[in-house]
Design goal:
Order of helices and strands of chain A: EHEHHEHEHEHEHEHEHHH
Number of helices of chain A: 11
Largest sheet of chain A: 8 strands, parallel
Shape of chain A: globular
Oligomer: homotetramer
CATH architecture of chain A: Alpha-Beta Barrel
Structural class of chain A: alpha/beta
CATH class of chain A: Alpha Beta
Amino acid sequence: MEAHNGLSAKIVQEAGFQGIWASSLSISASLGVRDSNEASWTQTLEILEFMSDATDIPILIDADTGYGNFNNVRRLVKKLEQRDIAGMCIEEKQFPKTNSLLEGAKQPLADIDEFAGKVKAAKDTQRDENFCVVARIEAFIAGYGLSEALKRAEAYHLAGADAILVHSKEKTPHQVISFLEEWRDTSPVILVPTAYNTTPTDTLIKAGADVIIWANHLLRSSVFAMQKTAAKIYSDQRVDNLDSEIAPVAEIFRLQDVNELKQAEKQYLK
Amino acid sequence: MEAHNGLSAKIVQEAGFQGIWASSLSISASLGVRDSNEASWTQTLEILEFMSDATDIPILIDADTGYGNFNNVRRLVKKLEQRDIAGMCIEEKQFPKTNSLLEGAKQPLADIDEFAGKVKAAKDTQRDENFCVVARIEAFIAGYGLSEALKRAEAYHLAGADAILVHSKEKTPHQVISFLEEWRDTSPVILVPTAYNTTPTDTLIKAGADVIIWANHLLRSSVFAMQKTAAKIYSDQRVDNLDSEIAPVAEIFRLQDVNELKQAEKQYLK
Amino acid sequence: MEAHNGLSAKIVQEAGFQGIWASSLSISASLGVRDSNEASWTQTLEILEFMSDATDIPILIDADTGYGNFNNVRRLVKKLEQRDIAGMCIEEKQFPKTNSLLEGAKQPLADIDEFAGKVKAAKDTQRDENFCVVARIEAFIAGYGLSEALKRAEAYHLAGADAILVHSKEKTPHQVISFLEEWRDTSPVILVPTAYNTTPTDTLIKAGADVIIWANHLLRSSVFAMQKTAAKIYSDQRVDNLDSEIAPVAEIFRLQDVNELKQAEKQYLK
Amino acid sequence: MEAHNGLSAKIVQEAGFQGIWASSLSISASLGVRDSNEASWTQTLEILEFMSDATDIPILIDADTGYGNFNNVRRLVKKLEQRDIAGMCIEEKQFPKTNSLLEGAKQPLADIDEFAGKVKAAKDTQRDENFCVVARIEAFIAGYGLSEALKRAEAYHLAGADAILVHSKEKTPHQVISFLEEWRDTSPVILVPTAYNTTPTDTLIKAGADVIIWANHLLRSSVFAMQKTAAKIYSDQRVDNLDSEIAPVAEIFRLQDVNELKQAEKQYLK
């Protein structure tokens, strides 16, 4: 499940999900910039660190192109491991990237060998054997067909990718399902049903998907709520009528774990 | 109206509000840490810069104690002005601070002269004559009465404070209204009706308040919505039934102003 | 004159130089990383901000490729202006860049139109009319001849570049002098005599150079001194015999301007 | 041996020293600010991370007061361990601190119990059993005598401090030697002979010191060299006569380990 800061990450964990998707779209949007590498990679890394500090479940970062070439990827892997991030998904585009769902955007792909080099560099760099490198196939997004997608997935699999994420912006899952049929479980496959959101999850799982990422729904939920609340306060000029739509201050304090600090003060401040 | 990142700041602006309250509680909570100076002042400053980049209306930062002594305040003012922040509210507590609404927390106040020195240092440092320094009176929060609150407000007013923010955690506005009666418009007064949220805004304005800050309601609204959405997705394992509760992806793109980038690409990329 | 942090920048200013070259090689080396965009652009920006805070003379940043495409350049210009940086030099390479003096390194150039678009985007973004955009010609570095260098310089000049920096790694200045002869003062020209360091400065000025940058000599001087001092302390296991080779602690305090703080404490701390 | 950035840290390691002292004075001075917590703790942390990335030997950070109370110390320890910092020295002053060697500065000490709480909180937070917490006794600096210094050292030792650093600004080591005599090896003792720099190291070791820190000599060496080089270039307007006083560009490249990148390019870029 998507999160974009420490708070939403904690909400994901408390809801019971097994892992967190640190979405590039959500993080950039919450910062107030575009999903086009306007925030630097270390600014994103700082958000990641807060997310990691606030939670105990695995975080998979949506790391765009890796923010440069194989050498930037090597540095990134080191920095992610230091911050207890469980894995990294990189996509075969060119820096700076453009969001895959943006209509009319050009999506030039990376050279296969160059991207496979990135995957291999990442795997060679990691020190924690559990760190996970996911290669994200953008061939469908860029207008290519199944054979190009498979060729690329195969190359990245051979380069060491732990899993393949196949992306599609079609409203039906036909592209990703055709991929799953041919891929035949060569390695785990991750799907992101944002565009084809009406397909039952079961259908995707039965087709062979190993992981489903709901990639931006907490952010979108918060935008909807904040716009509604802002409009209401602006028109009513009062806040006493919001109790059924906003969390109490005490719930904010609970999410911040203020009780732990109170206990610690007793122990360390006399 | 409160905001805590670039996105919520833009939502505040689009709703029509005249200014943005960069709340310390909200910013710390959204980062996933406590409102006890766990994030460094430059980490907060970076959030502020994103908020400023995303908006055109004035931002008033809830700057806790100024993050140290008068010298830290001087540096802070310079950094805020460089990032086009309109003003700064500092409170008469000791570093690291504790949130004023936290039950049972000790709230030791700063020495009056020391805090007045901070106010004076801030005013002497600013280069933009419109930069605004607000002194936040925590006497009521700390358990003192009206005369202490007035004595402190007077000292900070004389030190150059452009406005006074009087805080109270009572459920009724009696403390702040008694203050307004005695203060008699010596300088502008700001109120934060979080605890006494059922008092009609008109009552506060008629009592002499110049500015009302709704200090954390967008954050609380987003927490409520994200918790609900997370629970629903976790139980239903689907996202197609959320359309009436979440913003479309296209709305996220609009908030990020992707169209400006598309236009600019035509101009600068051939 | 080159500087790489707040301290060296202040030393440059105190020596009487008219401007500071915030060298990418020096800054990366002082951080301990390679001159290949291993540090993020915001990490470099933070160093720049400290340099700007410590000085009053103009700082020209060696901004590599602009750290991405025209859109990254636009954001960079805004951030530099906010930090009182006087100008930016960008070079026609591809991100991530490689240092121009590195033997045997591939140096693929940017497409002319794409780089001219960056220059134009920078000029359109600046708000301070004095902000300066320098286009750095890497054609000689990449193995091209004079006509390519001139063609590129002309394109960037037409796109709005305030000055041209022509780089060469030859041990004699023949390339840059041939450029100056043909350029005939179309716009100001900047030279960086690191490789052709034995050419008298007068020769370069008479040939038409408008600005000479000594691009890395303070860093190299500090490395030489620190290596010598470290070796001496390690072998002698004493520090009393260093007085003629190290600045007194009092000189460090003076460079930090501790006296201003002492005075301010009298004024603001009672 | 002191270092203040990635480059000087690598020089310390290459010289053969067993550990690096990340000096607060040196780091602040190199950034161009005062040793009074003008840089935020996360800005210092970023410098530390570059130092750690550039070296393999243990780094002990001069962490001032811990940048706040016990809770700030807890967060600091977590962040230091993530960045592979070997240990932390905190001093019994109040935030923001003042450099101990600054003449005429007030040096109010922390309350003993409060500081002991910080030490205990640090020890309880660390996950790596080798992480080292050093308590720095400032009693002599603040004008107190031996008994106060011993009382404080004892309290911090009981709170779990792995070592004691006794500081003195006297020109002779009489204070620290008197401390060593009474302390009788209760725990390891660290000395910083900046003021009493003429005392032979052997004398300090024989008196019982376990570790000697040369706390600022690389920075002071670099300032001396940069000032001399800057003056010379400014007056001569040439750089060809500096070869015996500056490191070659190739030496900078070597320190940046460009060869490793060249090799890696062969492997990952085809």
